[in-house]
Design a protein that fits this description.
By secondary structure, this protein is an alpha+beta fold. The chain folds into 2 domains: 121 residues, Alpha-Beta Barrel (N-terminal domain of MutM-like DNA repair proteins), CATH 3.20.190.10; 124 residues, Orthogonal Bundle (Helicase, Ruva Protein, domain 3), CATH 1.10.8.50. It is 25% helix and 20% strand. The strands form 3 sheets. The protein has a 4-stranded antiparallel beta sheet. A 4-stranded antiparallel beta sheet has the order 2-3-4-8. Strand 2 and strand 3 form a beta hairpin. The radius of gyration is 20 Å and the shape is elongated. The protein binds a DNA duplex through loops.
DNA sequence: CAGCACTCCTGTTCGC
DNA sequence: TGCGAACAGGAGTGCT
């Protein structure tokens, strides 16, 4: 399931192939994604040249000529691959962006939680304009988390997963970051000290950058732009390790459900 | 506004 | 062995 490191891995994988490439044809085999693919999308894309792709949170953004930007979200089962356009599409290969270079960018998404949209003004788009800072932005630090969390009764885990606070922290990395910081996921966000938020901000950055360095976490079916898995899974300390022993203190890892999401933590190392 | 529950979807896993 | 049920989850939406 793509989280920020997977999206970043995808961005780096596809960029060399799509940047400065002209779009020959848009092929939509299934338009029913999270939101329908705009019916007039091919008019915006065909014949246009793609600029330098970028990322905001988990959204991949491909500048299209001078007219706008293609927004792609991978949802939780989506992936993008560079393929030979003649390669027969598999099940759930919903969209191809055929390039003049002789390759195609192919969007695959079994659960169809992803989306492909077009906007003339990406930074003002409702899905992007209210997002919190990037975890590697200078404004994101312990003081930021501390300030934002005052008087918040929600759990610290739900708090750091809120993309209006900080983008890119999904379910896996929320558990892993809280473990690294030694903070119990059930603790109320508003009751955590500045010192602990300093640790947490650093933990989030450390966990995310380590995962990016490993090519993302392959849990079930994530593959990068060349179809290879990521290797961060072997590094996970608590996620999906219920009942297994903490790598630090050998206490069994616990699992509980918070807001319909599984949370994993070590009851000895985290308080 | 804050804090929830609900919703979309299909592949995988589980229980009988 | 086969079947249906439960489960997984990013994040927008809508209700209290």
């Amino acid at each position: 399931m793509p989280e920020l490191p997977e999206v970043e891995t995808t961005l780096r994988g596809i960029s060399p192939y799509v940047s400065q490439s002209q779009i020959k044809q848009l092929i939509v085999r299934e338009s029913r994604l999270r939101w329908p693919i705009p019916e007039d999308l091919s008019q915006h894309l065909e014949g246009a040249t793609i600029g330098v792709p970028w990322r905001r949170g988990k959204y991949l953004l491909l500048p299209i000529g001078t007219s706008g930007t293609l927004m792609i979200h991978l949802g939780m089962s989506g992936s993008l691959r560079i393929v030979d356009p003649d390669l027969a599409p598999r099940k759930h290969d919903h969209v191809d962006l055929v390039l003049e270079s002789g390759r195609a960018l192919r969007f695959h998404d079994p659960r169809r939680f992803g989306c492909i949209l077009f906007t003339e003004t990406p930074r003002e788009h409702p899905l992007l304009r209210d997002l919190g800072p990037e975890p590697f932005d200078t404004v994101f630090d312990g003081r930021f988390l501390y300030r934002q969390s005052r008087k918040r009764k929600t759990s610290v885990k739900a708090f750091i997963m809120d993309s209006h606070m900080v983008v890119g922290v999904g379910n896996i990395y929320a558990s892993e970051s809280l473990f690294a910081a030694g903070i119990s996921p059930t603790r109320a966000a508003g009751n955590i000290s500045l010192a602990r938020y300093e640790r947490l901000a650093q933990a989030i950055q450390g966990v995310l950058s380590a995962s990016i360095a490993q090519g993302g976490t392959t849990l079930r079916d994530f593959v990068n732009a060349t179809g290879n898995p990521g290797y961060f899974r072997q590094t996970l300390n608590v996620y999906e390790r219920e009942g297994e022993l903490c790598r630090v203190c050998e206490t069994p890892v616990k699992m509980a459900r918070q807001a319909q999401r599984a949370t994993y933590w070590c009851p000895h190392c985290q308080s």
